[in-house]
């Protein structure tokens, strides 16, 4: 990990303590996006760690994921386009774009929209009965991602958060495609 990646993560942690609008925004250029994606790799590993811990606490294998049904009903290409292009654009415009206009209550708006973004992802699961009690644990990875996406949006613009969100969604989609091509669909 380069010094630039460490720096952006330090900035991110400082930002989480007291979210506010940045005086100067970063331009959405290659050096900035490389730093952002370097920081994202660490955030993604934290998401994976959270999901691993989640599997210890929650019988995750018993909770059907909506993506399974979608992949059974629709073509992979359609699901890929929805997950990697359409969803990031729509979700970032709804949950991150408004953050840039919250001058006085930036922290409140930042954390509220991040919570709402994470909560929306409960529909990724087909829950019934007491499984709803697992809500905070199930959406923890999306909450962590939402924090980073909000930081990127305020540090640069909504285009940066859309790109990182698309990258985040592309990773599991590529893994699913590779599993499908190798005949390991039941493995996932």
The number of helical elements comes to 8
Report mean pLDDT, rounded to a whole number.
86
Q: What structural class do the secondary elements suggest?
A: mainly alpha
**What is the general shape?**
globular
The profile of the biggest β sheet is: none
The total strand number stands at 0
Q: Helix and strand string, N-terminal first?
A: HHHHHHHH
Distance between the termini: 30 Å
Beta-sheet strand percentage?
A: under 5%
Radius of gyration: 17 Å
> Could you say how many structural domains there are in total?
1
Bin the helical content.
55-70%
Indicate the low-confidence ranges by residue numbers.
none
Which features does this protein show?
mainly alpha, 8 helices, 188 residues
Structural overview:
The chain is mainly α and 188 residues long. It contains eight helices and no strands. It has one domain. Helix content is 69%, strand content 0%.
